[in-house]
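Deliverable D4.2, example record:
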Amino acid sequence: MKRALTVVTVALAVGWAVPALAQDAAQVKHGEEVFTAQHCSMCHSVAGKGNKSGALDGIGTKLTAEEIEQWLKDPTTMKAKDPQARTLPMKSYANLPKADFDALVAYLKSLKSS
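Output generated by the structure prediction step:
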């Protein structure tokens, strides 16, 4: 009985995890599309594509999702907190539609060091 309960519990957990992973993957893909549509590669690069002086590879390891959100919403304040940040001004993306903003954060958070 205990083994059957364990099997059912694992099956339910996997059943819920797979749709969540698919949703996360879809959100990351949408975020990549937002990154492209907003011309972020004019100042930043990912995997060698774009402006290499603003590489974002590994940013998802270096910053939390909340920190990424703050960079996108209020880059001036975030730059003041980070003296090693690039000197070029970054525009705020606070006015993006919420779904686009959240997807962009998910995409940037997915950029882990390889």
